[in-house]
Amino acid sequence: MNPANVKEIAWNGIRFVAPAAWEPGRIGLRHLVIESEAGPAMEIKWGPVKGRFSPRAHLRRLSRLMRARGAALREWAPPKDWLQALARFESAGFAWEAGGEAAVGAILHCPACRTASLIQFFQPPGRSGAVRQAAAVLASLQDHRGDGRVAWAIYDILALLPSGFVLVRHLFEAGRFFLEFRARRRTIGLFRWAPAATLLRDRDLSCFAETVAGLNGMEFQASAVADPSAVEGRERAAGSGRRLASYLGLRPVRTARIWHVPDRNRILGIVVTGRFAIDPALMETVWGGYGLAQENRPPGAHHPR
Amino acid sequence: MGWPRKTGHRALITRDDALGCTPVKNRHVRESHQESGEIVVHYPVAVHPWVARLVRFLGKEAAAPRDGKLQLDALGTAVWDMIDGERSLRRIVAAFAASHQLEPREAEIAVTQFVRELGRRGLVGLH
């Protein structure tokens, strides 16, 4: 695939490069359906496995399940370029047809990180090219990073978070994206709003943060650390009872950074919540890894800042 | 598309076909422009059939349709202005995405939800 016509998709440990016209259609915790203009193009599910895992044994179980649904799933010998792309995995290829639908795919197991994945590419009769495009996607497929951190690249946002933070909630609505991660007693919320020109038409960024962003109870001021278009939010100074509750860890403490990206017409935000005072280094680490994907960026160009 | 299902659940219209439809405004709808540039759509709201029957049963004259109002925000106004009876939903989505620098999928969801809401109120139809 031409690097100008591809995009990186990274979600909960899985990363791959897909044609630029493909967009996530359904997003689960460990499940993605990627759609092209013509409809669903690819589906991937993955998860950690304990003990032994045999892709062939799993394929036999899948075949029995599919038979119960009236579809014929058979073992399929992938072409040479698939085998080259999947050399680092234990794999078993499959193909199925049911009515006007058909797909080819593979069950994969990575011996290094012990993640099992099921990936399939839809190719209804009359639509060609799925197998060829699939080889390029499979060649780019990764299910772990060497540094233990987890990369996220979905729609136009990308993030590289410190290890240990687990996705607990995600929301992709028109104009508002939200991802929430948790590690022990700390929570990281990543926000993206658009279009910024409309959202900031009759209010400044601080006012936006306190109202639309739902961060009421915090006071915002221009950031001294980040770029000048950012505002920093801290809990409003409150009575001694509240301060004592925060000090004792009985009341969560929040710190936020919201910034405007005018040339992309977006607003980005990070909210870090913890039970005790939040280490400023955590905010800087998250901020360093969170940003907007560059249009037509080459695969692998992940770090936004 | 996906794994075959036990039941024969299929959408009545595919996404591709839906995006090829052209929204057309109801000709009984009036617009008024506010100073902010946003549009208020005025549309007739018919009395519910069982209310009309009850009114007739009571020997009263049937009530005239009420005037419903829908205040559009800036984004709604932008989409409303693009509905000209000629542009397909796909073209409106593309124009909306370009003018607001939105992701194509995001623009598609925003526009289709908005048009669905307009359709629910009888303000637009699709052909």
Offer a quick outline of the entry.
The complex is a heterodimer of chains A (305) and B (127). Chain A is α+β, with helices and mostly antiparallel strands and 305 residues long.
Structural commentary:
The complex is a heterodimer of chains A (305) and B (127). Chain A is of the alpha+beta class. Chain A has two domains: 3-140, Mog1/PsbP, alpha/beta/alpha sandwich (Protein Transport Mog1p, Chain A, 3-Layer(aba) Sandwich), CATH 3.40.1000; 150-292, Mog1/PsbP, alpha/beta/alpha sandwich (Protein Transport Mog1p, Chain A), CATH 3.40.1000.10. Chain A has helices at 55-68, 80-85, 130-140, 196-199, 205-210, 240-247, 280-289; strands spanning 6-11, 14-19, 23-28, 31-36, 39-48, 72-75, 90-98, 101-110, 115-122, 150-154, 157-161, 166-173, 176-183, 186-193, 218-222, 230-235, 253-261, 266-274, 291-292. In chain A, a hairpin with a 4-residue loop joins strand 8 and strand 9. The longest helix of chain A has 14 residues, at 55-68. Chain A is elongated, with a radius of gyration of 22 Å. Chain A starts with 5 loop residues before the first strand and ends in a 13-residue tail after the last strand. The relative contact order of chain A is 0.12. Chain B is α+β, with helices and mostly antiparallel strands and 127 residues long. Chain A binds chain B through residues 23-25, 33, 37-40, 43, 66, 68-71, 96, 98-99, 101, 122, 124, 155-156, 172-175, 194-195, 197-198, 201, 264-266, and chain B through 1-6, 14-16, 73-75, 100-107, 109-110, 113.
